[in-house]
Write a structure and sequence with these properties.
This protein is α+β, with helices and mostly antiparallel strands and 89 residues long. Helices cover 55% and strands 18% of the residues. It has one domain: Ribbon-helix-helix fold (Orthogonal Bundle), CATH 1.10.3990.20.
Length: 89
């Protein structure tokens, strides 16, 4: 059975709706400070796509959002940024 699961996992899209809610933590350096951000895979995929389309690194994108966010939590701001990016297209 494990071979079947492994084979199925390889054929899934990057953010299969079944697994899209798995949270991943990434460490980044923002404005000279090390921080960790936890987001669902679907949001990391979206942010990576946005950064690639804009021709910047994921760290540069997260840094832009961080500098503009005010008192809102960074993870919440990143989710809203990704959602608004796709809504405004």
């Amino acid at each position: 059975m494990s071979r079947l699961i492994a084979a199925t996992a390889k054929t899934r899209k990057r953010t299969d709706p079944v697994d899209g809610d798995r949270v991943r933590k990434r460490s980044l350096t923002l404005s000279g400070h090390r921080t960790s951000v936890s987001l669902e895979d679907a949001f990391w995929d979206a942010l990576n796509d946005i950064a690639a389309e804009r021709g910047i690194s994921i760290t540069a994108l997260v840094n832009e959002v961080d500098e503009a966010r005010g008192v809102t939590a960074l993870s919440q701001s990143l989710r809203a940024y990704a959602l608004n990016w796709y809504r405004n297209r």
